[in-house]
Write a structure and sequence with these properties.
Keywords: Signal. This protein has about 60 residues and is mainly α. The chain has one domain. The protein is about 55% helix and about 0% strand. The longest helix is centred in the first third of the chain and has 21 residues.
Length: about 60
């Protein structure tokens, strides 16, 4: 049996969640390097996990 009240409640909750999550994504963007700017990394790690940790440490990103 279809319950209109329950449907409206769930629809409102879904819409509110979508709006809240969308608003939080407004400040997310990728940093672009300056034109002609190059960054040198010194990563000497044979294992992928070690290389990713070294990259994160040198680039300043977790």
């Amino acid at each position: 049996m279809f319950n209109m009240s329950l449907f409206k409640t769930r629809l409102f909750s879904a819409a509110a969640s979508t709006i809240i999550l969308s608003a939080g994504m407004g400040g997310v963007h990728a940093e672009t390097p300056a034109p002609g700017g190059e960054v040198a990394f010194n990563i000497d790690a044979p294992m992928l996990g070690d290389a990713l940790r070294a990259f994160g440490a040198q680039s300043g990103t977790p």
